[in-house]
Amino acid sequence: MKTGIANLPLHTGSCPAWLFKRMVKLSYFITEIIIDELGTDLFLKRLSDPFFFQSLGCVLGFDWHSSGVTTTVCGALKEALNKNNSSLKVAGGKGKSGLNTLNEIENSNLTTAKIECLKRASKLAAKVDNALVQDNYNLYHHCIFFNENGKWAVIQQGLNNNNNYARRYHWLSNSVNSYVTEPHSAICCDIKQNQMLNLTSKICKETQKVSVDIVKDFKHLTLKPEHEILRHELTSYTIKTLKAAYEIQPNNYEDLISIKGIGAKTLRALALISELVYGTENSWSDPAKFSFAHGGKDGFPYPVNKKCYDQTIKILKNAVNDSRIGNKDKVQALKRLNSFINHKK
Fold first, then answer.
1. pLDDT band at 336, cuts 50/70/90?
2. Which pLDDT belongs to residue 92?
3. Quick one: 255 exposed, middle or buried, by C-beta within 10 A (0-12, 13-18, 19+)?
4. Each residue of 147-202: pLDDT tens digit?
5. HEC states along the chain?
6. Which residues pair with 145 in a beta bridge?
7. Mean pLDDT across the stretch 305-311?
8. Domain ranges of the chain
9. Percentage of the chain with pLDDT > 90?
């Protein structure tokens, strides 16, 4: 995977209507060309690559270094793919739209089993990045892309109110062997954390196991109150939550984090109890990876040329139509471009 630095400062305002309208059209034809040639599984894989996602935002004319590239590109793809009945669907979005993710998944024409798997993936991805990766970035955007086979990619973003920067998280179903052990395809941010708890690290495997054991035997656990760290972490709410979790008796760490009310503070308390009482090891290293590209809405490297943008949409529209009736000559150039990009990476 290509690595680098993705500057994601918070930018206020919204995408101009004239640009977003064009982004919807262009993103649709780019996506359909890739899907026609390589399939939805590969497009999902590309979405999980921050280099591709950032590059797509640049092609669509959005700021290369703005946090808004995440929400705007996902929004354009959602409108383009869902309204055009593409083989790839999108659920979720920014703010209140993200809260509708599960309902939107349920409204898809998939089997009940696939819908339940997608809902579980959506909920756990959000829970992990809000509660297990304790990096002071609170999620405000969540999108899940999925195909008819139930394969998916999640792109979500969190905000740090202390430094006015955002952090983007990428997930891919084919890469997730465990939701709670280093599941990300990538995490994009240019701000390093001085102190953060990463409970998805392989280092924390024993901490995860002991945390479940603590919950399952919570009523019989005697904690020494002289530990300053425990007095700070074990609030009345945390103790109440742990008692509720005890009644459920989770089988594993995924079950534990799926329990309503089990959030960052409770999981942190369990991790610290595991470390202080049982000597397990926790990870305080930041898991972020970095990526970069270039942009245009803000005038760099030049202002968006509307005439050129519209001509590109027209060319790609024709390429999609021609490829679907057997004339794929125009698409070969895109294949060669893809080979060149992969070679550079």
1. low
2. 98
3. middle
4. 999 999 999 999 888 888 888 999 999 999 999 999 988 887 766 665 689 999 99
5. CCCCCCCCECCCCCCCHHHHHHHHHHHHHHHHHHHHHHCHHHHHHHHCCHHHHHHHHHHCCCCCCCCHHHHHHHHHHHHHHHHCCCCEEEEEEECHHHHCHHHHHHCCCCCHHHHHHHHHHHHHHHHHHHHHEECCCEEEEEEEEEECCCCEEEEEEEEECCCCEEEEEEEEHHHCCCCCCCCCCEEECCCCCCCCEECCCHHHHHHHHHHHHHHHCHHHCCCCCCCHHHHHHCCHHHHHHHHHHHHHCCCCHHHHHHCCCCCHHHHHHHHHHHHHHHCCCCCCCCCCECCCCCCCCCCCCCCCCHHHHHHHHHHHHHHHHHHCCCCCHHHHHHHHHHHHHHHHC
6. 90, 153
7. 68
8. 17-194+287-344, 202-278
9. 50
pLDDT tens, residue by residue, 117-127: 999 999 999 99
